[in-house]
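User: Some background: our group keeps a shared notebook of sequences we're curious about, and every so often someone picks one and asks for a predicted structure to add to the entry. Today it's my turn. The entry only has the sequence so far, pasted here. Could you supply the structure so I can complete it?
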Amino acid sequence: MMEPRYSQFLLMTRYSFLAASIVALIAFFHRLRKVDRKNRIFEQKYLLALSVALFFFNDPIFAVTLLSQSFIPALFSTIFVVTFYCLILLFWLVQLERVSKENERKGTKLMRAWKIVLIAVTFCADLA
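Assistant: Of course. Here's the predicted structure to add to the notebook entry:
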């Protein structure tokens, strides 16, 4: 078992960042509501998804993971982290493609099969 003071510091730090991510998510969502759904650009939609994933990345069940002897909370914590990493990797890949094909037709499909396969492989490899 860890030292109690260190555990308390770790819990306070984690939940402080969790609270900051909640505040940022609410502020972003409040600002995004002012824009009509049809007029939202890809980055706005995806940043909303990344903000929600950031909440879970900051591990809201960390105290349960720290205090319990079960592997289930640790499994969920790992899934939260891996999901966030995969989402941010997908966002970077899509942005790279959009920047590299800037002069092409704007209506092209953003999700290509190779990106989805890459993210699935990354997700499975990170869980292993």
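Suggested note for the entry: The chain has a mean pLDDT of 86. The two ends are 25 Å apart (CA to CA).
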